[in-house]
Each structure stands twice: as C-alpha cells, then as structure tokens.
User: What shape does this take?
Amino acid sequence: MCLGIPGKIVEIYQQGGLKMGKIDFGGAIREACLESVPEAEIGQYALVHAGFVITLLSEEEARETLQLLSEISALDEEENL
Amino acid sequence: MSDINLPFRDHHLIQGIVRQIQRTVSKPWVLMEICGGQTHAILRYGIDQVLPPEIELVHGPGCPVCVTPLEQIDKALAIASQKDVIFTSFGDMLRVPGSSDDLFSIRARGGDVRVVYSPIDAVQIARENPDKQVVFFAIGFETTAPANAAAILQAQAQNLGNFSLLVSQVRVPPAMHTILSSPSNRVQGFLAAGHVCTVMGYWEYEPIAEKYQVPIVVTGFEPADILLGILKTVELLENGKAEVYNAYPRAVQREGNQPAQRMIDQVFMPVDRNWRGIGLIPLSGWGLREAYKKFDAEHRFQVGHIQTHESPLCIAGEILQGVKKPHQCSAFGTQCTPEHPLGAPMVSAEGACSAFYRYSRIIRS
Ligand code: SF4
Assistant: This one.
C-alpha cells in the first residue's frame, strides 16, 4: 500500500477546493491530488500514493544515485581485471 | 516508457552491488526491512537468494492491512452491515478476516461495500449520494495520512454531513522502539521505508539510531535501491557506526514533505493505537482532532460492544516483529492460504505470509 507509483504530471487544475492534476503512468492517465506539492509543474515526476502526490521526484538526485551505483559496480570490474 | 525508476532495475548494476555486498560483509548481520512493499520486492526479485549467507533479512511490521487491529475490522463490519451506508475501502481490506466475517461476505449479503483507489474518491461518492452515509476505512502508515487528511479537509470545505472516516492510522517510529526494546529482538540494522520518509523525512530516526546503536538506511523500492540500502547498512555495521543514511535521495529529504506534514497535523493528533498481533503501542497512531470529530465514524455510528476473537493458530505478531518467518507457522500453506486466510499477513499485498506463499518460499517439513 505504501508503494508510491512514479508518473509524469501532464495537467494541473483546481477542483472541489483542491489542487489536482492528471498524471501519466506510462500511458495510463489518472487523477491525483497535488495539495502537498505547491511547486509542482507540468512535466515533472511525481510519486503518487492513494491518489495523492506525496513528493516530486528529483531527476538530478536520481542521476547522482545512478552514478554512485555505477561506481560501486565499476569497483568490482576493476578488481576482476 | 520513460520511467525514472527503470535504470534502477539494471541487471549489470544489480550484480555489481551484490558483489560489493559480498566483499564488504565479514560476519553475520540481521537486517529488518520495515516496509511490506519492500518484503514483496525482495522476494519477487529473489534478492534474499543472492545475498551472502551472513546477511539475514527479517520482515518488519510495515503492512498496514496486517496491523489494523481486529476491533477496527469488526467495527468496519458492523458499520458496513448497516442500512443506508456505503462503506469504502482499499481492496486489500475486503478479505481480511475479522472475528467472524470479512467485508467481502458483507457485500455478498447485500451490503454496499466499494473498493476505492483514494479517500478523495470516497468524498466524491459522498457528494453524489447525499441520502447515504459514506464511510472510508482510513488505515495506513504515514504515507496514507496526507491523502486521508486531504479528504477530511475537502469534506469540511464542502460541508459534507454524510462523510466520515473509520481511522486506524499508524506510525513507524514507535513500532521501531517496540521492536528494539523487546528482549527477543534480533535486528541489528534497519532499511527504513522510503515512502514513509518521503512524507515524514528521516530526522525522527536519528535519536532511534543513537539510543539503540543501530544503523538505519532510508531505502527505495527498486532492486538496485534495495541492494544499495543493504550495502550501506552492512557498511555501517561493519564499521561500527550507528547512523542514519539516505539511500533514496530522489524521493526523500531529511525534513520530509512539509506541506503534507502540515495537513496531517491540522487534521490528526497522536493517539495510542493497538497493532494487530503486537498490542498497544503508546502514541503510535493518529486520531482525528477535536475540530474534526464530526467526521469520525466511531462517533457517528453506534457499533456497540465489540468482542474480538483471533484464530489461535495465527502467529502474526511474531511474524510482524521479525521474530519468526511465515513458514514457521503451523497453519502456513495448509489451514492458511490466500484463498482461506486465517490472518491478515496472508491477505495483504504487503503481508510477509502472502509474499512467502506467492514466491514459493515454502519450506515444508
Ligand atoms: S500463515 Fe496465516 S495463520 Fe500463520 S501467521 Fe501467517 S497469516 Fe497467521
């Protein structure tokens, strides 16, 4: 249940007093509440849980973690040479 | 598909990190992943089977469906059976056994029980059905609390007199205290649940790491994320460091999501909660604040005296605290299966028993 699903914000609007948006999950579009991410912009990645965006995902941090992971893997290859 | 998480499933990276874990570990360590979503990912990707034998993963209490106390389920059943009630819930709750029934059978007998994807959908149902009472079963950890708070704030703004929550909201840090202070505790390091930390941050874990001298690593959900969490925990353990490390920075910041925390704080206040199988944990949950009590289903409906009855075979409490593994339960895979569950951990998509069953970690004697 705590499996937040990442998707891209494709639309932002107000509805029933809440900031809402449409999120694209690899082709499937669903509505989610954006109340906790006032800075959200179209095109950003959002993590959605129970129809509610719990955070925006940082593409820069994702790249940095991937860099760290590749360095760890490369360590391994150096030793195998 | 452009998915930010996709690179974290890369086979090459995964193998490299597994080898780094092998090189780092020098003695046996017991790690607990708190979140049931991670338990399922670990078993689905076979992470438990590629780790060096020194590392034992035990599965934590982070299964919201599993820890929702029996008396709340029995109250849900009592409310859902009433006339003119639309009872809404996440799908997983429908098959969780109460003392003598489940929500599925209430529905089969004509009760209006509906599965929703979000509490905000339940508010919509309330708007569309002004002549019915609409109740949402608000279970879950910190991750679900902002959505539940948003539903209440919306119901308040729209003056909906026919919407209420049956609240069973729980929090992770008090459960970690319970696990770590138990005499039967074996856990030496934690993978903290990434999405709970997305909302709450990880500053709350720093005093826990300090007090019990355990490393705590904020961990994501993809295979490379989980392996990085394990690697960092093992590194900290091997170096004798009891620190908090964030291995999921693309989703988590130390302070968490502050607007979400403000919404939670506006609607909810800390209360004692019973955890199914574990018992009462002081201030381990959230209940509605006085100003929002009118949205509390327990106040709106008279559910009478609830006498609970748990299956005597089920050892869910020990499973949820990482003391025993599902296959050590005498009912596992025999009297208790996903089709005929005796306990909640066999029902939930985050329960350890259902994960062991589904991914065939069945060790029959
Ligand atoms: S296998 Fe079934 S009866 Fe045994 S602990 Fe798990 S849920 Fe309970």
Observations:
- Residues 223-238 of chain B form the longest helix (16 residues).
- Chain B touches chain A through 66 residues (CB under 8 Å).
